From TrEMBL:
It comes from the Bacteria. Residues 50-280 form the AB hydrolase-1 domain. It comes from Archangium gephyra. One of its GO terms (molecular function) is catalytic activity. This is AB hydrolase-1 domain-containing protein. Transmembrane segments: none annotated. Pfam families: Abhydrolase_1. Coiled coil: none annotated.
Amino acid sequence: MNVRFAPLLMVALGGCLHFHDGPMPGEPENATWLNVEGARVRYVDIGEGPVVVLLHGFASSIENWTAIMPALVKNHRVIAVDLKGFGWTDRPVADYSPAAQAKLVKAVLDERGVTKFSLVAHSWGSSVAMAFTLENPERVERLALYDAWVYESQLPSMFHLARAKGVGEVLFGLFYDQQIEERSTNGFFNEDFVTQDFIDAVERAFERPGTKAAALETVRGMKFDEMSEQYKKVTVPTLLLWGREDLVTPVSVGERLVRQLPNASLKVYARCGHFPMIEAVGESTRDLETFLAGGAP
């Protein structure tokens, strides 16, 4: 291709990313919704007892917590949220930074009458949990983070490039929904977890309207340098749960984070990748339940 036409191609492709408000094809019939912070938000609120709030990671949804929810609801009221731009929640023209997502979570909890709770998050959702805790320390009783994605150094080169206007639209327009099987496999130590049903579910989620635009704005909101300097202010008891073979967020990230948090401990699970709540569900859930019950971090 003649390089003179490259800018024109970038502009043309950049215009292909669109946001989306409102219902989407295939929505679960029994889903519950709240309209907060300019978005129609899907959430789950089940069980009774001390409240536990679950936040999923990038390009994920409430369903990532399916394996641990039956254990948690035995002794807790569990609230899980599809964050803005993911799952079945709207993909509006909006701010997708961790701070903005934390405001959305706060609005959901306010609507549900929840003031104090334990906060559990995975991967990029951990940055939302940290933003929430920094802004509302009096509301978070305990904090548990699985394979946290919270530092600038964790961002791949594509994410850095995508911050540039036009470039990001091209990259996400062309590549965001590609190589799903390979990317999914990178998240697990045991590839048996990456079934065809798993891949099909990811592909269907990526096809929902507005997904690419929302994902791009989420990446542009991952400005962790200034935020990460504040992590030392998080004094709430914190448990870090990590897969030893995580290729997405290596254990070295957990070791860095546990040194920065003044009241934290790190649990590492052998033969486990980026999803301990799936791949090491038994051991990690027992550790989580012990921690939520008041055990030392």
